[in-house]
Amino acid sequence: MADQHESISLNSPLVDPSAAAEHSWFPGPPPPIYFCTLSPELVAKAREELQEKPEWRLRDVQALRDMILKEQPNLRTRLDDAFLLRFLRARKFDYDRALQLLLNYHAGRKAWPEVFKDLKPSTVKHVLDLGFLTVLPRPDPNGRHILCLRPGKWKPNDYPFVDNVRALYLTLEKLIQPEETQVNGVVILADYTGVGMSQASNPGPFLAKKVVSVLQDGFPIRIKAVNIINEPRIFKGIFAIIKPFLKEKMAERYVLHGSDLRSLHRSIPRSVLPQEYGGTAGPLDMGPWSRLLLDCEEEFIVEFCQPDPLEGAELPEATLYGAEQDDDTFRAVRSQLYYCY
Q: Could you write out the three-class secondary structure of 204-258?
């Protein structure tokens, strides 16, 4: 069984070097054979914030790999050093929590097939073309890439909301590849211009819970801040849907700026923001990130368009997704939306 496991999953996805060279503004993926790409400053930061000891790094990776092979021998997962390091860093090198995160990561695919089936950039090109999300070309002074979301660009009649989730997940997968992101984390900038009742009520509490569960407990990324701007009155209702599912630490990282750009600039400096948000980094251009994702089509096919990774695996009783909420719960939340609107 171990031989079968290794033949399926030990190697990282193939990467086209020529495609990576065209997007030099964003770090390329790690090499097939791991070597640390962190600067001395980030090595020190990882030691302080993540309890990562360079001299023990590969020993820790091997310990997690051994746990997977022993406790989940049927789990079809990558076992290369670079991949497993994402989970260790996201859980501060706690082996048990890193393993649970890895199981949650794969459980998401089984629990949410409409998101993960045939997941590749070409299937969400309409979302990227619409401008629903992008990654700004410059990280902030703390080295954190800025994921810019514009939910008001989406209209429920255009396409299903899960297509937005698919584009978001592909973006997170690309963002987490560089070791810098694994250590520094990311910042979210969400512009709610144009969001009305139709967008706010469409996902519903159960879908909102799934999205939050993926970001908090099912993906190896550190979300350091969520900056909300231009939020309408209805946002109180939107946040009422999301907040019950947020951990306290995550809820504290939400900052509501309204239309006050000076408030935003205290969180994200003008030098890395586009001119649409009072910045000096030129106009907002959705093209570079869209092209980067689309050029990585083959990479995502290898990663996601494969057999069910959980087939035959035995998961612990604790699961990432709870039962679907009843109609009374949804009606109560919807009434809050109408009240705020």
A: HHHHHHHHHHHHHHCCCCCEEEEEEECCCCCHHHHHHHHHHHCCHHHHCCEEEEE
The answer to whether residues 100 and 135 belong to one domain is no
Nearest to 242 by CA among 191, 189, 202, 206: 206
For 62-86, b where at least 16 C-beta lie within 10 A, e where not — what string?
eebbeebeeebeebbbbbbbbbbbb
- CB contact at 8 A, 149 and 190: yes
Name the amino acid, one letter, at 250.
Answer: M
Residue type present at position 298: E
- Identify the domain boundary among 80, 109, 138: 109
136 inside domain? yes
* Residue range(s) defining the domain that contains residue 84: 2-109
pTM of the entire predicted model: 0.84
Q: Are residues 183 and 261 in the same domain?
A: yes
Each residue's pLDDT tens digit, 29-73 = 777 789 999 999 999 999 999 999 999 999 999 999 999 999 999
Sheet containing 254-258: order of strands: 133-135, 145-149, 186-191, 223-229, 254-258
C-alpha to C-alpha distance for 330 and 341, rounded to whole angstroms = 17
CATH code for the domain of 288: 3.40.525.10
pLDDT at 215: 83
pLDDT tens column, 211-254: 888 888 999 999 999 999 998 887 777 777 788 888 899 989 99
Query: Nearest 5°: phi and psi at 187?
Result: -120, 140
* Strand 145-149 versus strand 186-191 pairing type: parallel
